Amino acid sequence: QVQLVESGGGLVQAGGSLRLSCTASRVIFSTNSMGWYRQAPGQQRELVAFITTGSGTNYADSVKGRFTISRDNVKNTVYLQMNSLKSEDAAVYYCWAFPKYWGRGTQVTVSS
Fold first, then answer.
1. Which helix (H) or strand (E) holds 28?
2. Helix, strand, or coil here: 80?
3. What residues are paired with 39 via a beta bridge?
């Protein structure tokens, strides 16, 4: 069974930073692109960023320049460094591994 275990969510003031982590099984991590999606109340789940096994990255326009995705191939972990957080970044953030593996989600709350 594929497991994606997320951590790092929480409450932060607008303008602050958080780092999300997602650890996967070695088989999944080493052979698949991984990324982060988010879903705010009443909205569809949307892609935030993904990273390929070759460390190529892609970001949603709304987070470019503020968020950075990276992967640690020793720890089988993907990170999402979120800086300059805005109220509109508040959502449940889900770790994803290609093609359709999901974590349970971690809540990010941004206070103004």
1. helix 26-31
2. strand
3. 92
